[in-house]
Write a structure and sequence with these properties.
This protein is an all-alpha fold and 184 residues long. The protein is built from ten helices and no strands. The longest helix is centred in the middle third of the chain and has 34 residues.
Length: 184
Amino acid sequence: MYLITVFGNLLLILAVSSDSHLHTPMYFFLANLSFADICFTSTTVPKMLINIQTQNKVITYEGCLIQMYFFLLFSGLDVFLLTVMAYDRFVAICHPLQYMVIMNPWLCGMLVLVTWGTIVSLFYCTSLGLYFSSAATQSSHSGAVASVMYTVVTPMLNPFIYSLRNKDIKKALMRFFGIAALKG
């Protein structure tokens, strides 16, 4: 699942960066979300895979702090990018004639910068809920399942949900890999 997450998100970044038709605010935000998802998943999954392989679940205090810092940073980034994407869609639907004036490159850049700089998110509720829940009310198995759901499954599905089913992204990937000549 980790490789699918990284590969799917890299494909999305590749499609958006290589096709000038996709240089719009929506795809700019999607590419940033894909990058954030790769980073988010990479903060915990490689260590988890090593732990499973070696049967050693030890992490140093410093390692734990660093991992938690980046985990919270990228999870907050995910949430704020999703919020910015919702605003982008709001403007596109409610103000279609003024969309390009409102969602200009400067504003899109500022929204991403603000998103990168702000670390408050809904994912904190999940992680804090797991942290503060007592061992008596929750088994370690259910905690592990919840952890995998929000650290692996969601970032893996984001490229498929938001764009790989999109015909513009498919066309861009086909052009990039030279498949358009075969189809056309």
